[in-house]
Design brief:
- With 201 residues, the chain is of the alpha+beta class.
- It is built from 8 helices and 12 strands.
- A 4-stranded antiparallel sheet has the order 2-3-1-6, covered by helices on one side. Strands 8-9-7-12 form a 4-stranded antiparallel sheet, covered by helices on one side. Strands 4-5 form a two-stranded antiparallel ribbon.
- The longest helix is centred in the first third of the chain and has 11 residues.
């Protein structure tokens, strides 16, 4: 568990300051960022770094499904970009993960160190910023354009309503990578999808 969390289903109008202020309910926030596309528009998700791991844990437990500017957000551990962003010492974005692969394989014991070689074989994708109306079948059909989808799921709460994110599993890592490259940021049912490899898989 790291001290960073991924926050999804953000309203388009949420700024990094809005996000930071909201997440302060869980602990001392050192860093907050709303992810944007090349045009500077929000992708509907962001990253928040707390001063302690406890703060991140509290954020996941207490702030998931809380409302921020009219939308219920979800909070989970930031597994993908943790290392490059860690403490600001290395500022390279997600593209830097593959470049670090050789070094990562030598130190699998450290938190997140083995994420890169694992990602090379990852067949499952995390899909964020889904429309509330999107069903697992619609999600599956959309991602069929990049390969054979073995599994599709839209995460739901106890009340059965969508949480605004889901998962897709392909038959091969190549198909998963292709889907991430082709469909990340592409609009689906009125929202620009956030597609990335699911390191938890």
């Amino acid at each position: 568990m790291s001290n960073r969390v991924y926050v999804g289903n953000l309203a388009w109008s949420v700024s990094w300051q809005d996000l930071k202020d909201h997440m302060r309910d869980a602990g001392d926030v050192q860093y907050s960022k709303v992810l944007t596309d090349r045009d500077g528009r929000s992708k509907g998700c962001g990253i928040v770094e707390f001063s302690t791991v406890e703060g991140a844990k509290d954020a996941i437990e207490k702030l998931t499904d809380t409302e921020l500017k009219g939308r219920k957000i979800f909070v989970r551990e930031d597994r993908e970009d943790g290392k490059p962003r860690g403490g600001g010492a290395r500022s390279s974005p997600s593209k830097g993960k593959k470049e670090d692969g050789a070094a990562d394989k030598a130190t699998p014991a450290a938190e997140g160190e083995d994420s890169t070689p694992k990602e090379e074989n990852t067949t499952q994708l995390f899909i964020g910023n889904l429309s509330w109306e999107t069903t697992w079948q619609e999600l599956k059909d959309h991602f069929k354009t990049c390969g054979d989808v073995e599994f599709a799921e839209v995460a739901t709460g106890r009340d059965g309503r969508s949480k605004g994110f889901g998962f897709i599993k392909y038959g091969s890592a190549k198909e998963a990578t292709e889907a991430m490259e082709k469909l990340n940021g592409v609009e689906f049912m009125g929202r620009a999808l956030e597609v990335r490899l699911d390191a938890k898989a």
